[in-house]
Design a protein that fits this description.
Layout: H1 2-14, E1 24-25, E2 31-34, E3 40-44, H2 57-60, E4 64-65, E5 72-75, E6 79-88, E7 94-100, E8 107-113, E9 119-124, E10 141-146, E11 149-158, E12 162-164, E13 167-171, H3 172-207, H4 210-230, H5 233-236, H6 249-270, H7 272-275, H8 277-299, H9 302-329, H10 335-356, H11 364-431, E14 435-439, H12 452-457, H13 467-472, H14 479-492, H15 497-503, E15 510-513, E16 522-533, E17 536-546, H16 548-571, H17 575-596, H18 603-623, H19 626-643, H20 651-675, H21 686-700, H22 706-720, E18 725-726, H23 727-730, H24 732-736, H25 738-745, E19 751-755, E20 760-761, H26 763-784, H27 788-793, E21 801-808, E22 813-820, E23 825-826, H28 827-836, H29 848-852, H30 875-885, E24 889-894, E25 900-901, E26 907-909, E27 911-918, E28 922-923, E29 930-933
Parallel strand pairs: 1-6, 19-21
Antiparallel strand pairs: 2-13, 3-4, 3-6, 5-12, 6-11, 7-10, 7-13, 8-9, 8-11, 14-17, 15-16, 16-17, 18-20, 19-29, 20-28, 21-22, 22-27, 23-26, 24-27, 25-26
Length: about 950
């Protein structure tokens, strides 16, 4: 197998270079050029490929031509393979040095086949002992003896940090000359930095100033870091170690330690604790982050540590440069050299970071920029330290002179300033139309308080009065509220100001006050403001404002606004519609009062009360009477809790809620009939109608004259006969409400088709139909008609359809057939609901029809949650109850088979609702009248 591999690889080396990739001619003089564009690259994500795998055609096809002179892959743990061809046009072998111009690479392996087909390999890197290298150089390098002709070489690169392939080719003689000049340049730079470090160490010993020590430590650890970055550490330290610590973990550890001391130096040099406290806190965070990262690099993740180190260097440099610029703008002269020094260091550090991140290429500039930048910065920083010494010496001398002059001037003016400020404060306190005073720990009012305070509390003398007693004594605050305020104040005065900020919301902001000689309450607003000293609350400044007149005006304005809103709503309701609502309301209120007049209320009574309130709420909501619908919803929720056992039946509470509801209706009636002057002649309740009809029936049993019998018959006909509104006109308000319901449910407004067959409605029948159809339409929209996307999936149009048909059932009833084109009723969920409510023991023991009949049971619903549209299980129960009360009936005509199953396994059955309505509520007209109402009622 190895023989075949060698044969194929030897054969490939004899072939010309791939299309577009020229062989590197080593015949000419090689002086350190980058030949990245002559490389072919392949990424080995698994890292498992070996040199023997290179003969695999599938592997060889994965190589792609490099488009950069220095291929850079950034932070990656992927193994990178590169291949290139060296062409020797001489008749003898030529020695070539392949230099890998990146000292921080972990390991580089070189593979090729010699002229005998034997595999030749070599390895270098900072995780390979330096003393095994064939070329003594701070950069990993290979020495190859290139035979005549073309030879193909493979390089495998893998590293925990930045991975790049900066290959440079040298003639042996040219490389030796370059190595000498490179060593001299590096030595001079290190010498400059070490000399500056020794100079500043001398200043530290002489002046005993920490700022010099911090700078020396920063330079020393930077030298260690730079030795690792430049590859010098592996040459002079631990060169027989296979995993060179200084070049790997030490590279980042020294960078972080250097950053820590640079931060200490900047804080001391610019005195940032007082001048830039926020930036100082940020730099302190950088110090701790660097310390934590040192531990991380040593024991956990080198890649994460490299990223954190880059952030720390960049953030600290930017911060220190920012402080230098602002110090310079504020006149701090030593910041001039300091700012220049850090600007150079920042630029150098950015270049270094961008090189390691793979953003910038590896070349002479990016390789030496950091060393040159920091060396120049060190020189400038030494000048800054010297200038700082002279600056502070001159500043101290000037401060002493200026202080003496200012002290003399201040002593001459301080008494006059105090007298002037005192006059101003007293003038304010005498004339301001607010009560202002201060209290201390003992709550006593301090002497300087406003004169208006006496007028507010009707007291002539307030000095030394307990400020809290003054506020609370004759107020509407209970003892618990007073004690809470006293506790908060006791915990704030003399304590840190944060205590006040955390508890200020517990202090009273408004109260009612009544003095002994005044019959009217005053409404007072109170503001509490801390007076602080060194972040501690010493006293509280209390401001009291008499807003009685303002609140009265606000109340009048609020009442006026309420009246205007009511007028606006009523003006949008037709007169007959409002009168019909009032009739319906009064009828249902009367029924509620009759039930409540009983000594006790059973479950059926509670269901009726709940049903009446639910119907009032729906009718009010259709007309836009929000206050009535809201209060009815509140009462409805109470009855719902009672019937579920979550609240107790309390006649007093119910009477109070009904009285409030009736008060709201009376308010609307007052606006309608008295303010707007609209007619109320037609407001005859059903109870009144029944009473009149009862009298007529009683008189009919007597022996009457033909004229009197004719008159009674005419009265009966006027009361019971329809007033002529068509069926669909009676439902116009309910149909108008479909727009809002559809929007809330996110569905298209359904098309409503009404075939009324010429039927008309009486006044009582019109409101009765509204009470029924408000529930039917809501149930269709919420439960029956599917969401738009579901209808699309079923092949239906997004807009649903509701069909209402009227016909004569017999000589006493009109039959209404109601259905929609939705999914039907969820019998699976309904069965489970019945089991949960203990209405069924075995959900499979009854048929679909028997299950569906339970929708008329109070509280039964298939809704997952209660909404303001449906979900309480009252709609169908209410419809059946209303129909039975007037001698009507309702039944379900359902489909025997399952018509639809959803993805959750729920089964649905379609059905029609059949309603038999007494002809007293509707009457047969002439002809056939079909109305299609897609967009309006």
């Amino acid at each position: 197998m190895h023989f075949v591999t060698r044969f194929v690889l030897v054969l490939t080396t004899m072939l010309p270079a791939g299309a577009g990739l020229a062989a590197i001619d080593v015949t000419k003089t090689l002086t350190g050029e980058f030949f990245g564009e002559e490389l072919e690259i392949m990424e080995d994500g698994s890292g498992s490929l070996s040199f023997e795998d290179m003969d695999n055609p599938g592997i060889r096809k994965q190589f792609r031509a490099s488009e950069k002179s220095i291929p850079n892959f950034g932070f990656t743990s992927t193994a990178i393979w590169a291949r290139f061809t060296l062409s020797n046009n001489l008749e003898t072998n030529k020695k070539v040095i392949i230099e890998f111009r990146y000292a921080s690479i972990d390991r580089v392996d070189l593979y090729y086949l010699n002229e005998y087909g034997q595999t030749v390999s070599d390895k270098v890197g900072d995780k390979v002992p330096y003393n095994t290298r064939k070329v003594s150089n701070r950069y990993p390098s290979f020495l190859v003896d290139v035979p005549p002709g073309q030879t193909q070489y493979y390089i495998r690169v893998r590293s925990t940090g930045t991975t790049m392939i900066p290959l440079v080719f040298w003639d042996e003689s040219e490389f030796n000359k370059h190595a000498v000049s490179d060593s001299h340049l590096l030595g001079h730079l290190y010498g400059v930095v070490m000399a500056i470090a020794l100079y500043n160490l001398f200043l530290y010993v002489t002046l005993n100033s920490k700022v010099y020590l911090f700078y020396v430590l920063h330079l020393v650890f930077f030298l260690f870091h730079n030795w690792a970055a430049q590859g010098s550490s592996v040459v002079y330290f631990m060169n027989d170690f296979p995993n060179h610590w200084i070049s790997n973990q030490g590279f980042l550890v020294f960078a972080e330690i250097s950053t820590i001391f640079a931060v200490y130096f900047a804080i001391e040099f610019l005195n940032t604790r007082d001048r830039y406290p926020k930036i100082t806190k940020f730099l302190t965070f950088i110090r701790w982050l660097a310390f934590i990262n040192i531990i991380n690099v040593q024991f956990f993740s080198f890649e994460l540590g490299a990223r954190i180190a880059n952030f720390n260097v960049a953030a600290s440099c930017f911060s220190m440069l920012y402080m230098g610029v602002f110090s310079l703008r504020s006149g701090y002269r030593p910041a001039y050299f300091y700012t220049l020094a850090w600007a150079l260091t920042l630029v150098a550090s950015i270049i270094l970071a961008m090189k390691y991140q793979g953003i910038l290429p590896v070349n002479w500039i990016t390789s030496w920029a950091h060393s040159f930048g920091v060396a120049a910065g060190a020189i400038l920083m030494s000048l800054a330290l010297g200038d700082r010494f002279n600056y502070y010496r001159n500043k101290k001398e000037k401060e002493v002179r200026d202080l003496s002059e200012r002290l003399a001037a201040s002593l001459a003016n301080v008494e006059e300033q105090v007298r002037e400020k005192t006059r101003d404060i007293r003038s304010i306190m005498e004339n301001i139309q607010q009560g202002i005073f201060m209290i201390g720990r003992d709550h006593k009012i301090l002497p300087d308080y406003s004169q208006f305070l006496s007028k507010i509390f009707n007291r002539s003398s307030i000095k030394d009065t307990d400020g809290l007693e003054l506020l609370f004594e004759n107020s509407n605050l209970n003892l618990d509220e007073q004690d809470k305020a006293r506790t908060v104040i006791g915990n704030c005065i003399g304590e840190d100001s944060i205590n006040f900020d955390a508890n200020a919301h517990n202090l009273v902001s408004e109260l009612r006050f009544q003095s002994e000689d005044s019959k009217e309450d005053k409404i007072l607003e109170v503001d509490w403001s801390p007076i602080e000293d060194d972040d501690s609350v010493e006293r509280l400044l209390v401001t009291v404002r008499d807003v009685t007149e303002v609140k009265a005006l606000e109340h009048v304005a609020e009442e006026q606004k309420k009246r205007l809103n009511a007028i606006d709503r009523i003006m949008h309701i037709r007169e007959d519609k409002f009168n019909g609502f009032v009739r319906n309301f009064l009828d249902m209120e009367l029924h509620c009062r009759e039930i409540l007049s009983a000594t006790s209320a059973g479950e059926n009574d509670i269901n009726k009360l709940f049903r009446y309130m639910h119907t009032i709420k729906g009718a009010a909501r259709i007309l836009g009477l929000k206050e009535i619908s809201s209060e009815a919803h509140h009462i409805e929720s109470y009855f719902d809790r009672v019937r579920k056992g979550k609240d107790s039946y309390d006649r007093k509470i119910i009477d109070e809620m009904l009285d409030q509801l009736r008060h709201t209706l009376d308010f609307y009636q007052h606006i309608n009939y008295e303010v707007l002057g609209r007619n109320d002649d037609n407001v005859i309740t059903s109870a009144s109608q029944e009473e009149i009809l009862s009298v007529i029936e009683s008189m009919s049993a007597l022996s009457l004259t033909p004229d009197l019998e004719a008159g009674l018959s005419k009265i009966r006909s006027l009361i019971t006969s329809p007033h002529g509104s068509s069926f669909h006109e009676s439902l116009s308000d309910v149909l108008d409400s479909l727009d809002d319901i559809s929007i809330k449910l996110g569905k298209e407004r359904p098309e409503v088709v009404i075939d009324d067959y010429g039927f008309t409605t009486s006044q009582k029948g019109e409101q009765f139909l509204r009470n029924i159809f408000v529930h039917l339409f809501r149930n269709s929209l919420d439960h029956g008609i599917e969401p738009n996307e579901v209808r699309r999936e079923k092949g239906k149009i997004e807009r649903g359809k509701i069909i209402v048909k009227l016909e004569e059932a017999d000589d006493k009833h009109c039959r209404i057939t109601y259905f929609d084109d939705g999914q039907g009723i969820n019998v699976t969920r309904l069965r489970q609901k019945l089991v949960n409510d203990h209405l069924l023991e075995d959900p499979n023991s009854v048929s679909h029809g028997e299950v569906i009949e339970y929708i008329f049971h109070p509280g039964v619903t298939t809704a997952k949650q209660v909404t303001d549209i449906s979900g309480r299980g009252v709609g169908m129960d209410a419809i059946k109850g209303f129909l039975l009360e007037v001698g009507g009936n309702i039944k379900i005509d359902y489909n025997d088979s399952i018509t639809y199953s959803n993805q959750d396994g729920d089964e649905f059955v379609t059905f029609k609702i059949i309603i038999d309505l007494p002809l007293g509520l509707v009457a047969k007209g002439s002809g056939d009248d079909t109305k299609q109402l897609p967009d309006s009622a």
